[in-house]
Specification:
By secondary structure, the chain is of the alpha/beta class. It has three domains: 204 residues, 3-Layer(aba) Sandwich (Rossmann fold), CATH 3.40.50; 167 residues, P-loop containing nucleotide triphosphate hydrolases (Rossmann fold, 3-Layer(aba) Sandwich), CATH 3.40.50; 37 residues, no CATH class. The chain has 20 helices and 16 strands. Bound molecules: adenosine monophosphate (AMP).
Amino acid sequence: MTKFSDLNLDPKVLKAIEETGYETPTPIQAGAIPPALEGKDVLGIAQTGTGKTASFTLPMITLLGRGRARARMPRSLVLAPTRELAAQVAENFDVYAKYTKLTKALLIGGVSFAEQDKLIDKGVDVLIATPGRLLDHFERGKLLLTGVQVMVVDEADRMLDMGFIPDIERIFQLTPFTRQTLFFSATMPPEIERLTNTFLHNPVKVEVARQATASETITQGLVQFKPSRRDRTASEKRAMLRALIERDGADCRNAIIFCNRKVDVDIVAKSLKKHGLNAEPIHGDLDQAHRTRTLDGFRDGSIRFLVASDVAARGLDIPNVSHVFNFDVPNHSEDYVHRIGRTGRAGRDGTAYMIATPADDKSVAAIENLVEQEIPRIEAPALPQSESRSRRRSSAPAESVAEEQSPADTQRTERASRPRRSERARGGERKSDGRVVGMGDHVPDFILRSFS
Ligand code: AMP
């Protein structure tokens, strides 16, 4: 088996790796590091959780070991699709480059221009950026990309989803033709294939197994249920989610819960909180400081449930997540692979549940087709008392959390709103504030008969 010491990495990098406790290179590292160190272009087909960040950071640091940064001309460039991912690459860089004198700057939204400008003016070895922010700096004349020797594109397929491909093409064109490119993508849709054919020179292709197919450490389960009414789908899914969490008890140490839409991220988080569960939402509409705070809280265990959209959670390295819940079946099958890959990392056990209704049948089939396996069907847990009762009563739609009730609330309002017999006989209904509305005393006979 390949050892890190076989890989020709700078001894300073090896020392830092030793301190992280990594024993052997992961397959993407063993495959990508040697050609990268030889100066070749690399096309890495791998997703997060495979150790891909180190597979480009370690050779980059080694290659930059010689030479010095020049003002406003970074020597290497890492492009990542989201701020969180860029920040994560920067953290990795700090760990692996700790025994070198290399410098870096991070160009992402939410971090002040002035501070980063100062760093770039002085000269940095590594510039880590999201594409839009990088082009902003370039257009303000603060940056020259003609000194870039190594360019990394991370999570290219996500860049495609986010509409960044024209920006990436532009950035490629602003860097020297002689640069070395290390290009990573979890999948290779045609647009990405075209991009690599245009901008990479005879790349060495390194492909590692998709995580979903290689993830023996993830126990998957599909809960299928039929909502009592279409307009109750969301509230019954929320009850199903709580029932699943409750059923796994202490085994569900923490979890990421995925929703397809930002609005549902907020509703589900609010609903869990209302039921006494410690949950916070994370999605692109929340400001950067808020997102960072939430992520830190989830990492340090002070937040147990992170309710997330795909974009916000993509690529985040949060070790030790015991459960992933697909509150919604993802619209893109590949997102299923990314989502469940948040658990079962680095050989640990993980559980991934997905809640599906008959309306999701097609999407479930597409996912199973992609991962080439049937997701085991698991028995739906019994819904909490209040929920099954309201299913029987088939009460008014409760799609918003404001209308959703905790079990105690439900009992209270049920008692209060149940009309007394005499009132019922008059076709009346007792409102929660005690008022009775109905037809008063003048009830036609045929209605009275129907109540008896
Ligand atoms: P990544 O795919 O880059 O997001 O990395 C996923 C996780 O694997 C991170 O927490 C890394 O710290 C960890 N990791 C990276 N390389 C190794 C390795 N060779 N051995 C063990 N863990 C690693």
